[in-house]
Every structure is written in structure tokens, then in C-alpha cells.
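User: Show me sequence and structure for the first protein, then do the same for the second.

Assistant: Starting with the first protein.
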Amino acid sequence: MARIAVGLVLAGLLGVGVSRAHADGASWVELARPAPGENIRGVVPLVEVSGRGLVGFPDPYDLVVAIDLSESTLLPSGMDVDGDGTLGRVPARPGRKLAGRWSTDPDDNVAHAELLGTALLLERLRAKAARVGILTFAGGHRLRAPVGSPQEALSSLRRIRVRLDRSGTDVARAIRAGVRALLKAPEQERGGRQRILVLLTDGHPTRPRPAIFARRAAIRAAHHAADHGVRIFPFLIGAEALARGKLFAEMAQLTDGKLHRAQTPDEFAHVLLSLDSTSIDHVRIRNRTSGATARAFRSFPDGAFDGLVPLVPGENELEVTTQTTDGALHVLRRTVFFDPASAASRSDLALAKSLRDRTLETELMVHARLGAPTRRLKLRVEED
């Protein structure tokens, strides 16, 4: 058994810095790269700065997160969840009894990815107009926290233990339990609130048997959720789950939700926070040490942004200034160190290629906006 130390990963497992402009948490901006105090050695004096800014749900909402803890969630997720630089893999002889022997790095399994993603979400919801419930499921289900404050839900999440559960995966039961939890939220506080069920899982339902009955039961449960105004947002996690999704896409469509395939725990939190939101109006990235601004800057509809910032030898103080669509101004700073090298490394070549590709991408966008025929734009990309 592995106790989930969620409190530890919240402090910066992914190297994320967060800025909130208002006490009510109406908007926030965070940096994903570079890591604080990162030492950069190379011949290319550039560093990628990337992050995201969002304005949260405009209306109050009730949310239940249903976390799949069935047997298969002990397998590797395909991502470095604990950030130790080692990717968990299926061992030559998987354990049959102990949960920690299904992966060479148990902290990288699907269950830990689900729990970390939920923890990151709850941390960001603390100041928002949201009430949250937590339930776990396999062949059965357990309500860990009724719909209430995000702080209470996070406290319950920290007490979850990962155990080997061979009872199967009953998605239908999890959906119905989530709907019940949402319907039990106090009426006097729920007026006009959205009802959302987030389903974190790594595969298809297996209960009730046979599998075709399990799938039909899940669809019936989705209809039940739709009848009660509950939107289902399934998040598929794990290497095998990423290739699936037809059943979950149908359940999402029935309830006016949307299927997502989460590549990282942080992505789960990002996507959910941006479901009904707008994001960034303006971003400026610069090196305060040298005064240089970002090259090949890009911004995306989901609030993400990135750019390549020139560096000088030694200490570099980077600054990101953003204005979100609610009018809030955010300023984030991060210090990195650049040590010039005499020979190019693989990271140098990748960085140079990224700069070249982004420059070409920008040229294409400019020509498209000006109405210039793209066939007249001559591009030449040489292989390294």
C-alpha cells in the first residue's frame, strides 16, 4: 500500500508558479517553464518560457470527481508523475498481491496521476465559487467527501490509500453515485449552479458482466445524468486509455460534456478550469537583466503561451506580464542561470530547431492574414 502524500506534490512537483490578482481567485496565471533557479548550459543562449492564464467559471457550480482505483490503475501511466526523472514501467514479473509491485516506479502509476491531477485542481479551486465532492470506484464505490468546500475535499483526498482491488470497473455505478451526491447538495445554496461530474479512468467498464452489459449500463447511467442536468467530463489517463474513448465520448455527448485524454496530471486541472472560460488578452515576456524580449512568441485559445527568451551569461531574471480578460494584471518573475558551453548538445539543437519552426509558423500566419497565396512563400528547412 502506498499513502498518497498529496500535500508534498502541491508545493511544486511540476515547477509551477501561480499568481492570483484577486482574493476571490477570479483569474490566475502560472509558469510551467523554466523551473525556478534552473541552470542552463549550452551554446544557444535561449530558454523557453511557457505558461497559462485563465479566468474561471463565470457561474457557481457543483463538481464531483469520480476517481477510478480499479486493479489496472496500478499499472504505469506513461508519465513521470512524481517528477523524479524516472519513468515507471511494467516490471518483468508484476506483483500479484502488493499494489507497489505493478510498476518499477509505483508513484508513476495511473492512480497517482489521477490523485495528483485532482489535488492540483482542488488547490486552484480554493478561492473560487465551487463546491466539490470526491468519490472513488472500482467494482463498487465510496463517497470520500460530500459536495462541499474544496478544502474539505482536498483533506479527504489526502487520506486516500491505494490498494489492490480486483472487483472490476463499474462506471455505471460511479456515475449514478456521482449524480446522487450532486442532487444531495443543499437546495438553498444550489440555485443556478452547474452540476458537473468528472470521471477519471484508464479504460473500459467491466461490471456488470459481460462487458457488453457494462457498456450498456454506462450509457443508461449517462442518460440518467442528463435527465438531472449533470454534465459528464471523462478524462482518460494512461497509455492504453489514450487509444480508446468511443464509449466515453458518447457519454459526454449525451450530457453536453466533453471527452479529454489527459497527457499529464497538470493538464487535467488546466482543461477543467478552462471549460467555460476566456483567458488572456495580452502577454509580454522579457529578460529584466538584459532588456531582451521573447522571440517566436505564441499564444493559444486555451490561455497557454510560450516564447524563447535570449539569455546572458550568469544570472537572468525573467519577467512575464499578462492581462487576463477580466482586466486583472499579473506579473511573475523567475530567475535562471546560463552557463555558455563550447560544444552544442542535443538540447541546443532542439532549441534551435524550435526557434526556426516557430519563425516559419509565424511567417505563414502573417501571409495567411494578409491574403497572400501560401504557394508563393518559399520555405526551406534543412535537416540538422
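Switching to the second protein now.
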Amino acid sequence: MTSRAYLYLNLAIAAIAAAGVVVGLTLDTRTTPRQPLAQVGKPPVPHGLPAPAGPQIEAAFRDWPNGSIDAMQRLGLEYSGGPTAAERRTGAIVQYYRGIALFWAGYPSDAQNALEFAKTLGKNTIIQGRADNFLHPGFFQDPNGPGYPVFAPTEKNALLEQGSRLQAEGHQESAESVYLRAARAAPGDAEAQVAVGVALFNEDNLTPAFSQLGPLIARFPKSQIVRFYLGYLLAWTAQGGKALVQFKDAVALGPNTEIGKASESFVSQIENRGSSSSPK
């Protein structure tokens, strides 16, 4: 495992296993309208957002709450996507921050709509994962990362390393394509098959990722990395008890390897919190 990947993995382990506060959107499924219940204080002010809309978004958040929602609503109408990739990227950023502004101001249903739109416009960009992550507050929250788990290869493999970089940058679909190339080139390589499963992760639909990873246990019964990443995705989705089983099995397959040590770290932290309290 490269030093970069190992560092990322250990940071993720600590974050998932230790985080105790769920931050995100509590969806309002009622049909009757209610008065807005704003969050306390001001939302974080984004920095360095790209033009043309970035400076206007930053100004709206910096001036909160003075005209902020009106400004974001106007931007939402002005930047709602388009035929070009650049228009869609700009629209995704605007809709994402419009959703956060609406959530902060106490409009969860409108915020949900904006964030779902942002996820659609931001497909294969970092906005896709971040919007999806914000829409699922019961899962691990990764507000400063790509929003999705990132596969960290343990072996020297140019395609897997390329896919990992793409995932870390938020290019989930591009990473999936690269991982699929690696998996087809080496069908007997457990690591490549696991990488595909991690890239299939989508918080709106967990089935593809788990359907890819689950059968790999029987196909590669002695593979630590299969057990580890199955546990990792279970932990990410707040299934602590099931994750604990996979991590313990990974440790049993080799406690002194990097994956074994990472798995043991998860086991210790989950057990310290109690497996009934799933890591988030």
C-alpha cells in the first residue's frame, strides 16, 4: 500500500469508527407545510469556488442571513444546468450550496430537492458524492472529502492507483471504468474485483456495491481485502454489528499485515463504542 493510500485509509478508519455526531439533512416527509426552523448560527462560508457563480455563492453565505436565501434562489434559477459539461458543473455547485442554504434556513423539503438536483447535475464530480452524503445523515458524513469511500490499493497496480486517485477527486464513474479494466485484465485478482465494488457505492442504492462484494467472500475465502472492504462499506452505512464480523474475520486471516492492523483498529473502536451503536 502506498504511503498516501495508507494515510487516507487510517484517517477514514478513525473518522468512521470514532465519529459520534450525525450531521446532515433530516428529510421532511410530511405533506403539510410548516414554519421554517432555522439552524443555530451561520453556515460555514465556502472559499475558492470557481467562477462564474462561485463568488456570488460565497458572498451569499458570508452575508448570512441578509438576503442569502433570495440570492441563492436567484442563482438556482440562473444556473440550472445546460447542454455543456461546464454548465452542468456550475449548476451542480449552485444547487448544492442552494440546498445547504435552504437546509440551514429551515426548509428541509426544498433542500432535499436542491441536493438531489445537484447530485444529478454533478454526476462524476465531487458534488455527486457530497450531495449524496448530505442526503443520508444516518451514514458516515464526509463533508470535506469526496463523499464516498475510496479504495486504497495494497499492491502495485497502475490501473488501481489511477482509479483511487479518480475516486479521491470525486470522479466515481471514471474510477469505476478504470477498475473494471483492471478486473477484466486480472479476473483472479481479488483486489481489482473489490475495487469495482467500492466504486459502485451509491448511498441511494447500496445493492450494486454489496452485490459485487458479498459473493467475493466465497470466491476468495482467504482474502483479507475482501473482508476489509465489505466491513468498511458496512461501517460507512451504519451497520456496525455486521461490519464487526467482517473486520474480525480479516484480522483472523493475518493480524500483522497492513489490512490486518487496519481491521484491528476498526474492531477496537467499534467495540469501545458498542456494536449496537453502529459507527457513522
